[in-house]
Each structure stands twice: as structure tokens, then as C-alpha cells.
Design a protein that fits this description.
3 helices; globular; about 140 residues; alpha+beta
Length: about 140
């Protein structure tokens, strides 16, 4: 598997854990060896693994947390680091996200996630994936 494909696989695992509200899966995706940060839309920055994981526990425990779909992921590789830029489609609109990964002995692990609204909904090249909405 190419490095780009491996990063895209890790990014897809992130969105699958998000969609399934799988805290164990989400926990497994974040680095345990490097500092991690996260900026959820409208939130203050979160620094450190405990704060980041607490945020996901809160989001997953909220019955109103949105269904999410990752669209048009694009990878930029920097050796043992990689950035994925993608759109997040939720009921309320479309967000642009960046996910920073680092390669360690366990594979590509998240260091940073940030998402914010886009002013104009993008035109997607590919049709939306056919997935069952999870509640």
C-alpha cells in the first residue's frame, strides 16, 4: 500500500469512528507519543490527549451530534507527516477540515483535527457514498 493510500485509510477510519460514535476506535487513531490538538467548529482549541478525547466522549454522548460524511479527501505528504484536507458534510451544511497525521510504529496516527464552515457549498466531483445513517 502506498503512503498516500495508507493516510487515506487512516483518515477514513477517523470518519468511520466519528459516524459510528466509536470512542474506542477514535482513541486508537490519535497519537500517544506526540502532542495532539483539536479545534471543533466554534470551539476553543483543545491541547493534549486527555482534552481531545474528552471532547469526543462529549460529542458521541450527545444525541444531537450530527451525522457526518467525508468528501474529496486530498493528501499532502511531508515524509513521516501528512495532511488530509477534506469536506465534512453534515445536515447543517458543509465544513472544510484538515487532519494532520504522523507515522509511528502503529501506523498513521492523528495529531490534529480542525473543521470550520465554508461560505459556499462546494461542487463535488463524485456522487455521495450510499451509507445508512446511524442514530
Amino acid at each position: 500500500m502506498s503512503q498516500e493510500a495508507a493516510v487515506l485509510f487512516a483518515n477514513e477510519a477517523f470518519y468511520l469512528a466519528f459516524a459510528l460514535k466509536d470512542i474506542k476506535g477514535m482513541d486508537e487513531l490519535w497519537s500517544r507519543h506526540l502532542p495532539v490538538t483539536c479545534i471543533h467548529p466554534g470551539w476553543q482549541p483543545l491541547f493534549g490527549r486527555d482534552a481531545v478525547m474528552d471532547s469526543w466522549i462529549g460529542i458521541f454522548g450527545n444525541p444531537a451530534s450530527p451525522a457526518i460524511e467525508c468528501r474529496q479527501p486530498r493528501v499532502v505528504l511531508y515524509g513521516d507527516f501528512a495532511q488530509v484536507y477534506c469536506y465534512e458534510v453534515i445536515e447543517e451544511g458543509t465544513l472544510i477540515a484538515s487532519n494532520l497525521f504522523a507515522l509511528d510504529a502503529r501506523g498513521w496516527k492523528l495529531l490534529h483535527h480542525q473543521a470550520s464552515p465554508v461560505a459556499e457549498k462546494p461542487q463535488f466531483d463524485e456522487p455521495a457514498p450510499q451509507r445508512t445513517r446511524l442514530q
